[in-house]
Amino acid sequence: MKTLNNFIIFSTLLLLCITIMNGCKNQTEETKEVTPEPTFDLATAKTQIIAANKTFAERFVAKDSAGVANLYTQDAKFMMNGSPSIVGREHIQSVMSGIINSGISSVDLITIDVWGTENLVTEEGEFALYAGENKVDEGKYLILWKKVDGKWHLFRDIFNSNLPPSVQAE
Amino acid sequence: MKTLNNFIIFSTLLLLCITIMNGCKNQTEETKEVTPEPTFDLATAKTQIIAANKTFAERFVAKDSAGVANLYTQDAKFMMNGSPSIVGREHIQSVMSGIINSGISSVDLITIDVWGTENLVTEEGEFALYAGENKVDEGKYLILWKKVDGKWHLFRDIFNSNLPPSVQAE
Description:
The structure is a homodimer of 170-residue chains.
Chain A: H1 2-33, H2 42-61, H3 65-69, E1 72-79, E2 86-87, H4 89-101, E3 106-116, E4 120-131, E5 134-148, E6 151-161
Parallel strand pairs in A: 1-6
Antiparallel strand pairs in A: 1-2, 3-4, 4-5, 5-6
């Protein structure tokens, strides 16, 4: 009888040890799981930025200078050749209106590459400007995009022409 | 004697349980510690980029076009007005040599702001070009800097002039 009691106590202690070891293993795995990898996906950001450029081109062709300016952050800089940086959405709208009224009727924007993080992405691209059917300028750009209220906005926008200065549209 | 043996076996099993529980606790703490916070410091990166720009200006004034080109990544793009992007260190050296030989004798580079991460930083800046004592151009730029072998290199470099096209240096 005493031997049976001892056997029961041994078995209980052994089971307790095994249970603790298993619990220990599970706890370690759970601790690893509460540290997730960052979920930012640059390919998704690139798709969103290509879509934002499409919206830019659509608003431009519709002569909607306010709509184009709203794609920039409130404190954005539009860095065009031949002028100091144009700072702020209001001034950018005024310059955009001037460009549209000068006869530039549409713009092509082609994303070459993007680099960055969840809220700031730098885009390299190529552009072309048209007056009706005529291509009047083509060039390259870097845009620093900033996510504001969940949407990508142009924060810094610099570009220049591939054409010799003598034939560039002004 | 048998009672003493049982006592030793009980004690050993209990100690084993306690040891496993403590080991389990320590293991969990260690798992937390192996996930450190990122240590990137943008202020340090800004200081390093300002230093790299100083080196750029020093090599430029020394007419060291190879030295300037070595500050760019092998696959860099130099995106100047009036030409498609100049791609690769070798072509950039050739263009840099041409600029130096055209009479541009020095360049001022002033960092306005930087944004980015450990290996990629976008810089907004202002530049001035001089022929001897005369300022012949001034403008703005965005540079995408890439860390290669622990040092910042120009990876994308786009700039344009603040001056009206009619008076810009070509």
